[in-house]
Write a structure and sequence with these properties.
two-stranded antiparallel sheet, TATA-Binding Protein, alpha+beta, 5-stranded antiparallel sheet
Length: 278
């Protein structure tokens, strides 16, 4: 017998499941699902009805999914306009400041990404991380630097389609783990006597995330077999063989990157020799 998520008791397994549904809903809203497909599709992705989803989100967050989506996009657009007042809707860079909860050290994340950049889709140089993005409505390019105040990252975002602003920002926030609560994480880790001095020496470390779960799955499989350097080589070969050329209007912003990561269909249809290991 199923249990209605809206009528469970705090502390019960179903209450925890309710919190999980709301958390996943918020993540999908941030990725632009409501803008692209509506609340009904969001509810379907979560395995519940639209009415139930609305009730859960309003109970937990005080606003409907549609309002959260509108407010989220409005905040992103305001930030882009304030920092890029003359930018055109497409193929011109939008400048955004993406904040993080302190303490935050983006240099650590940039170093991690620099060691794992895949030629063709990523580049690190001069303290800036550049990568191409495959987004719901087209391609994008993000160039990221630590903010001068060390409170987040500064992003120069160039999009083929302006409708991809919300998902692009959500994926960059996920990549740089900007929504983590470092104080909670540090308190938990510092309770271990072996980890405590490491936490004290480098507080607020983030765990880099992903801009695309399929890309991460491929890179994880490749990386299990060989070294980091070897994984870069093999993944770069896959990208060169199967990656889609970046939209022409984005080429200047993307340089020296010129491809986006291959789609699942392209990988599934590829001959075995594309995936040869050293």
């Amino acid at each position: 017998m199923s249990v209605a998520l809206g009528t469970t008791a705090p502390g019960s397994p179903d209450w925890d499941r309710r919190d999980d549904v709301v958390a996943r809903a918020v993540a999908l809203i941030a990725d632009g699902v409501v803008e692209r497909a509506g609340v009904t599709e969001l509810a379907s992705m979560l395995g519940i009805g639209a009415r139930q989803l609305n009730e859960l989100v309003v109970t937990e967050l005080g606003a409907t999914p549609a309002k959260i989506a509108r407010d989220h996009r409005r905040a992103i657009v305001r930030s882009a306009i304030s920092r890029s007042p003359t930018a055109a809707p497409t193929a011109s860079p939008l400048r955004l400041a993406l904040g993080a909860r302190p303490p935050y050290d983006p240099a650590v994340t940039l170093e991690f990404l620099a060691q794992r950049t895949v030629p063709g889709i990523e580049h690190v140089g001069g303290g800036r991380y550049t990568r191409t993005l495959s987004l719901p409505h087209g391609h994008g390019v993000a160039a990221v630097e630590p903010s001068a105040s060390a409170t987040g990252i500064d992003v120069e975002l160039t999009l083929e389609d302006p409708r991809d602003l919300t998902p692009a920002v959500a994926r960059l926030r996920r990549l740089f783990d900007l929504d983590s609560d470092p104080q909670v994480v540090d308190e938990h880790l510092a309770a271990d006597p072996l980890l405590a001095p490491l936490v004290a020496a480098s507080p607020g470390r983030r765990v880099p995330g992903t801009v695309d779960v399929f890309e991460t799955a491929v890179r994880a499989v490749v990386g299990q077999q060989i070294s980091i350097a070897g994984a870069r080589t093999v993944t770069g070969r896959i990208v060169r063989a199967l990656g889609e050329p970046i939209e022409r209007s984005l080429a200047a912003a993307a340089a020296p990157c010129e491809l986006v990561f291959p789609s699942p269909d392209a990988v599934a249809a590829a001959p075995p020799d594309v995936f040869a290991m050293p």
